[in-house]
Amino acid sequence: MTRSLLSVFICSAIASPLAYAAAPATTEPDSTTSPKGEDTLTVTAVADDFKAGGNTPVPAYLDGGVANGGRLGILGEQDAKNVPFNVISFTDKLIQDQQARSLADVLSNDASVQSGYGYGNFSEAFMIRGFALNGDDISYGGMYGVLPRQVVATNFADRVELFKGSNAFINGVSPSGSGVGGAINVEPKHAPSTPLTRVTMDYTSSSQIGTGIDVGRRFGDNDQWGVRVNALHREGDAAVDDEYRRTTLGSVGLDYRGDRFRSSLDLGYQKQVVGNGRPPVYVSPTLTKIPDAPSATLNYAQPWSNTHTENEFGMLKGEYDLTDHWTAYAGLGASHAHETGDYASPTITDVNGNGTVGRLSVPYFADRISTMAGLRGDFDTGFVSHKVNVGFSSVYVKTRTSYTMPKTADRGPFSLYDPQPINYPPTSFTGGHMDDPKVRNRSRSSGIAVSDTLGVLDDKVLLTLGARRQEVLTRGYTYEGVQSAAFDDTKVTPAYGLLVKPWEHVSLYANHIEALQPSDPAPSTAVNTGEVFPAITSKQNEVGAKFDFGTLGGSLALFEIKKPAAYTNSVTREYGLYGMQRNRGVELSVFGEPMYGVRLLGSAMWLKPELTDTNGGLNGGNDAIGVPNYQVVLGGEWDVPRVQNVTLTGKVIRTGSQYLNEANTQKLDAWTRLDLGVRYAMPMQEHTLTWRANLENVTNENYWASATGGYLTQGTPRQFKLSATYDF
């Protein structure tokens, strides 16, 4: 039902906007030539029209690469220097200039984020402040359950917004329950104030060719109607030997901006194919040393391994100004996902890289519906200002899946350094019906949140108080469709934060905020088999400082997040929430243009991810799995003097060591990656042709990039990207 509705929406919406957008513009094109000849970025949000709390994005900082703020769930879009939380956004300009293909590429600019593969497939998984965030739990315009869940192409994104910290009050509970350490939100593209017609052709080594178009127009007496159309097709061999990738996507963004009423409809389609994709690698728990990573380009995938994902999604939002001080809003989102794959992740059993490889074939279907509604306003009581929010949000998810796999004896031999193909392993075990999978999971998360931000001394002191009453309901089913598990719990999660502006350019802040996740029932090996526990509450405390001197901004934060962990007591055999993972860290970020023609974007995080209250003291004090103890990212741009229109770019990523197991006997070495690039804006009469060339992993380092999820993800090899973008 969800899929058919989305198909009708997409077909009907694309027809008329494409015809209109293809018409020649009657005004000057959006991309003009700057004094240095560079194309000027179209930015929808400008300082004059930004109003905190709504849907208008925070204005881009200086050159437009980042924005000092972003969406804070129920609190709406907020300038970072005015809220007691840590948030930053990466804009479409940064995405274009770095030729970022996915969210992982974009978020590699922030040291608080690490990325890897999802379980058994090629989805992107993230670690923020040392805690996992699944691809299912990335929001779109502040709504869960809309975007594709495995890999999100950046062509849909006007902004990629990163919230650092626990966020149950801000966003509610995510569909899969991850996101204890942070959240990612993608803002859709809408038509800018000036006409936009942009065509891009790109090349990615070893032989990927892509073509994309981005068209935006506004019309009406006051330009109140907007249309934005995006389309892309890219395919070819990747930099990893014999790996093939194909991406096809399209999106339409319609919006209306009236005096009191504003609305938007965003529709999208994405299809991705990966053939012979290099998989994650598992390591036997008996090994005490992880084999060195092989050649960066070596592919140890099986030639029959593949994955196909297809997604249709849509989102409708609207808001109405009841008065000059009160606004009501509502939104509805939906998506349908169809995924199939033959996966072959090897398991290494000795230090020489030998092991075995099998097969797991899985069809996966997901239907998701998301809703939101609320009221926000502001008023004064004497010398105290108030900014009030009352909101409701919910997300419903239904998944259908099945599997086939071989028995252990049919697994083939594997060598990490000399991989050989094996025959497609025969099926020995089956779960469900491959052609018609039954429902395996239904979940519904809904909550009501209220907040009040009180300000005194001309809002130089701001106190934010809030709470969310959250209900989480899940139902699990066997592969034959019989209910086998149930969870239903309601909890209230508070949040409070204080922000003080002692000086014009400096803000000091502190906050307490929590995360909420469903818990698993006690396993069959425990004496309390089947016992259901309350939702797991993780708690964060944070203090920090933010600065903005007009040409240079940044922040410093110290935080602690405590997440309960469950295990079966080795003495009593009782299962419960006895353990704890405690992450204590320091974050530093800086961005801006400290001197003319030199732009910086850098960050660092030092983290102690400690296991405490462990089972019988085993592994107590050790580091949690897949969390590096530090990461530093330093990026910059330099407009070359006396060479008009040329900009040199570079980025260095340094990631500390991390562990693959809780015993901390399997250790990944620290690694460093260097990226370099050049950009040339070529004036062509009244238009601009922008050339971008980027070389990632310049030194072609061989390294294990991540142990996220308890398995190894290898870093990408040296990769060359070239694009030509023409703005009509």
From TrEMBL:
Membrane topology: Multi-pass membrane protein
UniProt GO molecular function: siderophore uptake transmembrane transporter activity; signaling receptor activity
Leader sequence residues: 1-21
Residues annotated as domain TonB-dependent receptor-like beta-barrel: 255-698
Membrane-spanning parts: none
Pfam family, one: TonB_dep_Rec_b-barrel
Lineage: Bacteria, Pseudomonadati, Pseudomonadota, Gammaproteobacteria, Enterobacterales
Primary location class: membrane
Biological processes, Gene Ontology terms: siderophore transport
The protein's name in its UniProt record: Ferrichrome-iron receptor
